[in-house]
Design goal:
Elements lengths: L2 E5 L5 E6 L2 E7 L28 E2 L8 E4 L14 E2 L19 E5 L2 E6 L5 E3 L37 E3 L4 E2 L4 E3 L5 E6 L11 E6 L5 E6 L11 E10 L6 E11 L2 E14 L5 E8 L8 E7 L5 E12 L11 H8 L3 E14 L4 E7 L12 E2 L7 E4 L4 E3 L5 E5 L3 E7 L9 E15 L3
């Protein structure tokens, strides 16, 4: 090896040469730039023996900031820096890669801190409006509750019964309405995409022409959705022999809580499978959506077909997250805002108005959306029996009729042939099967 010291003729700079090649340049002030090179004209092999292919590294500056580009994919790279800047991507592909910090670890994107991990392991989002998207679960359980704006999307509550056939538009499973045309039916079936035969779905059958089932969401639950992105999703399963097209529709009521006239704001179509598949449609809710939204699942065939529907959900966001399971008691209470049914005419109190007429108060399980204006009942007059204050019972001479109501209680009228004393206390003591129903549906 031959080492020479070279100086330019003006004396302002020079270099230490090794075998005739500048190795250590310097200037007049004595500043020296050290460049170490191997035979591949790189510097990598001076610092590691794990890999010897060509590398290009820019070393730390005086502040500890490192900008690096390297094709090293193995070995151990250990260093202590105040920050790391990468013009492209900083990838960790090893089986045991880690970032170690003795202090809180901030993560900045776009020049602003977005997330911070403190020394106790707590994660916080620093910027206002930060979103956490595409999370499948929290602590191996479902995500935070009450995301789903659809009530009874899991088809667990069927207060009116479990089978409905043609005869006009009718509510089937609670909160779900079907057109009820001739040859069409909706029934409850023990089949579910997540729970198997431990869960329920709505089986929608038609013998010709399109069939649908839809859910209406009242205005009070849509006001905060205007201008936001929402996703409607549902699981569907084709029970027919032939391929079956199914569409998802999202519409808005043209007047507050009045779905007589609607504006379609989103639709999506797909071909179903004989296994459960999930369909979804994402939209931005326009101003008219404040009047209320309707979510519809509709077959698109004029031939006989059968489709099953389960786990329907409408939520804020651009993706369909895992279906939200709510306790049955909570779901039932949400349904009872729109419809409530007393399965037995018993336990209610009232008093005699005259010797042949009485008033009975019927308390609701939940405050209803609006005061009901009618009474649903079944059975005969003999099913509606009252117990008298002085003992004994007496059956009414006619089925009950509606008298008045608020959002929490209704008053019904009972007529009798005779035998009551005006002002005496009475209590309902009917037999099984004599229900009373009240509706505040949309």
């Amino acid at each position: 090896m031959t080492i020479n010291i070279k100086s330019n003729i003006d004396g302002t700079s020079g270099a230490i040469q090794v075998n005739g090649v500048d190795a250590v340049p310097f200037n007049q002030a004595g500043l020296i730039k050290l460049t170490l090179r191997n035979v591949a004209n790189t510097i990598t092999s001076w610092f590691t023996t794990a890999a010897t292919a060509a590398r290009t590294w820019t070393m730390p500056d005086k502040d500890g900031t490192v900008a690096m580009t390297s094709d090293i994919t193995g070995g151990t790279q250990a260093a202590s820096f105040t920050s790391i800047t990468d013009a492209g991507n900083l990838n960790f592909t090893g089986a045991a890669c880690s970032i170690v910090s003795t202090n809180a670890l901030p993560i900045s994107v776009g020049g602003a801190e977005r997330m911070r991990i403190d020394t106790a392991g707590a994660i916080s989002f620093q910027s206002t409006g930060s979103d956490l998207n595409n999370v499948a679960s929290v602590n191996d359980g479902q995500l935070a509750g009450l995301r789903n704006r659809i009530i009874n999307g899991n088809f667990n509550v069927w207060q009116r019964g479990t089978s409905f056939f043609g005869g006009g538009s009718v509510y089937t499973a609670d909160r779900w309405v079907a057109p009820g045309a001739a040859g069409q039916a909706v029934t409850r079936v023990a089949d579910h995409p997540h729970q198997g035969t431990n869960g329920y779905c709505a089986q929608v059958v038609n013998t010709g022409g399109s069939q649908w089932i839809d859910h209406r969401i009242e205005s009070a639950n849509c006001l905060d959705l205007v201008g936001k992105t929402v996703t409607f999703s549902a699981y569907v399963k084709n029970i027919s022999a032939a391929p079956l097209g199914v569409s998802l529709y999202i519409s808005a009521a043209n007047a507050v809580d009045n779905f007589t006239s609607k504006t379609e704001i989103g639709t999506s179509s797909s071909t179903t499978s004989t296994s459960w598949i999930r369909l979804s449609k994402t939209i931005t809710v326009p101003a008219v959506g404040a009047n209320g939204l309707e979510c519809k699942i509709m077959t698109s065939t004029t031939s006989a077909a059968t489709v099953r529907v389960a786990a329907a959900q409408l939520e804020i966001g651009s993706v369909a997250t895992p279906f939200e399971h709510r306790p049955y008691g909570l779901e039932l209470a949400l349904c009872q805002r729109y419809y409530t049914r007393s399965p037995v005419f018993a336990g209610y109190s009232g008093f005699a108005i005259t010797a042949t007429q009485a008033r009975i108060s019927i308390g609701f399980g939940a405050s209803m959306r609006i005061p009901p204006t009618a009474l649903e009942q079944n059975g005969t007059a003999a099913n509606y029996v009252i117990a008298r204050n002085g003992g004994g019972t007496v059956a009414s001479s006619a089925v009950p009729t509606f008298s008045s109501s608020g959002t929490d209680v209704a008053i019904i009228r009972l007529d009798f042939a005779s035998g009551l004393t005006a002002g005496e206390g009475l209590q309902a003591a009917g037999v099984d099967g004599s229900y009373l129903g009240f509706s505040a549906e949309l």
